[in-house]
Design brief:
Layout (H helix, E strand, L loop, with lengths): L3 E2 L2 H12 L7 E5 L2 E5 L6 H15 L24 H10 L1
Parallel strand pairs: 1-2
Antiparallel strand pairs: 2-3
The protein binds zinc ion (ZN).
The site of zinc ion has 8 residues, from helix 3.
Length: about 90
């Protein structure tokens, strides 16, 4: 992940968010030639996966590969959880 270039003001916001216990500031920052990484120490693989899953789901990407999902489930009117490719291989298995 490329670090985001930030100002000192932004870094203060990051620290404030951390004080509140928010996971919002997780990421890489670039400040005056320094790379600052905010990540969860000893975060389990499951937690990381869940975060990725949620992010993809919210943004309408396939939860497996991150491809943009364009088709909606006619029953729910919502975007499918998986891309065409993964929907097909998942359907075939069941
Ligand atoms: Zn996919």
């Amino acid at each position: 992940m490329e670090p985001k270039k930030v100002t000192l003001k932004k870094l203060h916001e990051v620290i404030e968010a951390l004080q509140e216990g928010s996971e919002e500031p997780i990421g890489n920052y670039f400040y005056k030639g320094f790379r600052i990484q905010i990540s969860k120490y000893r975060s389990s693989g499951t937690e990381r996966y869940m975060r990725l899953y949620r992010k993809r789901r919210e943004n309408g990407y396939c939860v497996r590969c991150g491809a943009k999902v364009t088709k909606k489930n006619p029953k729910t009117g919502k975007l499918y959880r998986l891309c065409e490719f993964h929907r097909e291989i998942t359907d075939r298995k069941s």
